[in-house]
Amino acid sequence: MIYTDLLFFLCILPFSVLFSFFDRSTEYKNLILVLTSLLIFSWGKPFGVCLLFLTAVAEWLIARWIEKAGARKLPILVDVIMNLFVFFLFTRKFLYAGGDAFGYEKVLGTLGILFYVTRGFAYVYDVSKGKIKAEKNVFCLITYMTAFFFMPTGPVARYGDIEPMIRKRTMTVESITKGLNSFVYGLSKAVIIAPVLRKIGVAGFNFGEINFIGCWTGALAMISFAYFLFTGFCDMSFGLASIYGFDVKKNCRNLGVNGVYEGVIKSFGTTMFEFFEEVIADFGEEYGFFKNILVVILSALIAFMLHQSLLFLLIGIVVGVLIVLEKTMFKGFIEKAPGVLKFVLTYGISFFLFGGLAAGGVRAFAKWLGALAGIGTKYTLSVAVKYAIINNCFVVLIAALLAFTPLKEKIDAKVQAYSEKSLENYGKVSVIKTILTTLLLIVCIILVASATVKI
Amino acid sequence: MKKEKEQSINEIDENEEYLMPADCEESEQEIESISVDERKTHYTLINLFALTITALVAAAVFLLLTGEKKPAREENPLTLKTFLSGHYTRKIEDSYVKSLPYPYEFKNGGEKIRFLFGIGNKIKKYKDVEEEIVIVSDDEIEKKKVSIKENKEKALDDQTTKTKAKPATTTKKTTAKKKSKTQKKDLTTTTRATTATTTTTTEKRTVLTTTNNNAPNVVTTTTVPPAVTYNYDSKPEDSSSSKKEEN
User: How far is residue A323 from each of residues A295, A327, A440, B231, measured CA to CA in Å?
Assistant: First the structure.
């Protein structure tokens, strides 16, 4: 079950939030949160939940072992092996049951388990570094590990930041309102914009009628689809955490032009990459130059774990090399280069990388590369691509403005400045925002219902 | 003495004027900031209520109301085996999805929203075929039954003569085509019925429809329960136009 399921956001979520208000104690709220999370993950695949429970307890034991024995390397090695094993076991198999209306569960299942194991490892790592103390109460750690809003797209919230909220938190009007608004925005990205972009992407990558314009638009659409799907679910995760009284960082940020890694890749999982940067920096202190090799290995490993294929492994290695180059040789160049050049380089390279991922195989990738230059294409533009673009041109335009331009930030800043002028202005802005958000929610409900309902 | 003292404390001399202390600037600012915060909280509450009520109304509609075609209650026992295999929760989800109310309205609503996504979109209209059923008197039903029987016999005669003349493969093709057309019952591009009858033969309602009374050649549809419809009184032009729409 994922956030875009009707059964989740119109049935389980309202009941869970309602039950959370029955008692003021944080322990009770934690219990409701854990039970809700277990219900969501056990939906269709209860065996997976048992394993999730076991790994949460294992993380607790390993952290206690580090603290008691004072050993560091062996427990961390054990933890890494356990998490890798869990990841390979769970990938595409256990986390979600599948069969959602939009077909997102396949993609999010893999990502979700990546964020889960990273979060577990981050806890043990922080204990080993002495940044936090090992948790004595296993129930607190289970709350942290199994909280459902940390799962599909992160964030990799550090236990040191979350622990005070697990011990004591309140669900206020402000936090719930902020959370609901964020959830609706995320839902609209995932339900309105992402399916349209995927439709164009699929039409463009149809190798049965491969065409020149379709290959270009298809890759662009697939990058945008990944961006909107991920940021949409990040917004929803942030919103849900806020509803339950947790104040966490978002796991995404706006796309930038400061290189492929800083500008694009880091936007998909900001907190996770920040954690890995920390680990690599610590590793570099001990092993110097070998940290660059670790970057490449880590990048290749993550890519390969996301999809066990040669193409993903190759792209992972390329991304790792790019990260190393951007952090070392080209650091000065990226800082000083003019904006247009940075834009072209960042999105040019990202285009080929994402295009490769969307193609799905080495042969298909080669065919797609040829088609970009007009080699082996049947037409310039296929009917399917043409109609997919024309029939959804308004949504595509809005998506492009939101993703690739600073328009949203400018509008936000202007609205903020206007509302701060007087209380009357604040009221106007607030009421208009409320009306628009409510309309957006209604539209989302209708679209999800129309996709779910069976005639 | 004590009483006198108490009285002197409690009694207020009416002639004496009490000067109220002048409002200090800080307190006014504080009061203003509190009122501003209160107003802001007020707007936050409006936002919260609007979103919560919308979500709760939708949740209540989906939970309490059920679709017209309510699925038959299937047994879903909660045992260790059904729970661990995931069948239990899967069945709950299935029954929730199947019992969603206003399925055609939601499909049409979704189509109307998607119409606004770009240029050149066409709205597909989903319509329940059973909506067009008109209940008529028993006498009329009997008359129609007789005419259906006659039509059927006539059409069957025509069919047999045709099948004798044509090779067997072509008949197979036409029946396959017919079947695929009857399966597309969720779209309104099916025939326009002017009158229809409802006859209860078994516990389930069986609806009989024919597209054309004076059917030239083979136009008979086989009655397949639970819902196959026969339309009456439709002119040959109607059927041809509907065929065009289908194409």
Answer: 8, 6, 39, 69
